[in-house]
Design a protein that fits this description.
Helix content is about 55%, strand content about 5%. It has about 140 residues and is mostly helical.
């Protein structure tokens, strides 16, 4: 049940990025970033690149947000959950034994963080490359 569905729109209506951003309390640039990281997120794009999210896109984005922010998974961990078809509500708990531990759990257990640090560095490097490519395109 959406927390802040715009007045007058049905539950099945498509939403703009600003509506989804407000509903999920996630900045628009983060939603765009997640589109690049999670191939399952595919909003409909219209003229001028405007994005329109289907209700199932919003449900998926909500789950991604929860896995990243509430459950402490890394982007790679969430990618793996989704790739294996286990990123739906309630299914993550049974999958956790087979997946990389969330960052908070790894830190609390005193395990070696070297792999996690490398994953973060790889993600930051990819972001840097994306920003460089975007900057060159504007010149």
């Amino acid at each position: 049940m959406p927390a802040s569905r715009p007045a007058g729109k049905s539950a099945a209506a498509f939403r703009t990025i600003s509506e989804v951003s407000g509903e999920l309390d996630v900045p628009q640039h983060v939603l765009r970033f997640w589109e690049g990281k999670f191939s399952q997120v595919r909003p409909l794009k219209r003229g001028g690149g405007r994005r329109y999210y289907r209700p199932e896109d919003i449900d998926l984005l909500r789950r991604i947000r929860d896995l990243l922010y509430s459950e402490g998974y890394t982007i790679k961990g969430v990618q793996r959950l989704l790739r294996e078809g286990r990123g739906k509500d309630g299914e993550a708990e049974e999958a956790t034994a087979e997946l990389p531990k969330p960052v908070a759990a790894v830190a609390a257990s005193g395990s070696d963080l070297k792999g996690e640090v490398k994953a973060v560095i790889d993600e930051l490097s990819a972001l840097r490359d994306m920003l460089k490519a975007a900057g060159k395109g504007r010149s």
